[in-house]
Design brief:
Blueprint (H helix, E strand, L loop, with lengths): L1 E6 L16 H15 L7 E4 L3 H8 L6 E2 L9 H8 L7 E6 L3 H11 L12 E7 L5 E8 L5
Parallel strand pairs: 1-4, 2-3, 2-4
Antiparallel strand pairs: 1-5, 5-6
Length: 149
């Protein structure tokens, strides 16, 4: 299984939090990462997106169908995101478009076995693989920030 965590791109300040939109810079960040992802994700990739406006706009940059679910929203815990994605036993690739600090906690949980306050930069992706045929080895395949693509 491959699991890709994509933090929403830069968003405007304001309330309500769920209605915050991407800034001009955030739209550019989303487009940069979307172009990078499109060249790499398989066509049958499952995409799970938080209901917030900024995550929806980030995912829209891909131009692919996705499922909106509170299971990966602002109130979700790292273990809930892993359960929603089916990690590590799901067949194929799952892309989660979500929020900090939860996504950083997911990354720490995958790599260290416990939650920690790791930061994932706005608009960045972290790509993990669980290789079942190698005894469940966890591989961090890529960490890509918008300013690097």
């Amino acid at each position: 299984m491959d699991l890709i965590l994509w933090r929403h791109a830069e968003a405007e300040d304001g309330m309500p939090d769920s209605a915050r939109e991407l800034t001009k810079r955030g739209r550019k960040q989303a487009a940069q990462i979307a172009a990078w992802l499109k060249e790499r994700i398989p066509p049958d990739c499952t995409i799970l997106v938080s209901p917030s406006r900024r995550t929806q706009q980030t995912a829209d940059a891909l131009g692919l169908p996705y499922e909106t679910t509170k299971k990966v929203g602002t109130g979700a815990a790292p273990d809930e995101i892993l359960a929603a994605a089916g990690w590590p036993g799901h067949e194929g690739t799952v892309l989660v478009v979500g929020h900090q600090p939860t996504l950083g906690g997911v990354a720490a949980l995958i790599l260290c076995g416990e939650e920690a306050d790791w930061t994932i930069k706005k608009g960045a992706v972290w790509w993990f693989s669980c290789r079942a045929r190698h005894g469940g080895d966890i591989v961090l395949r890529a960490v890509v920030c918008p300013d690097l693509v």
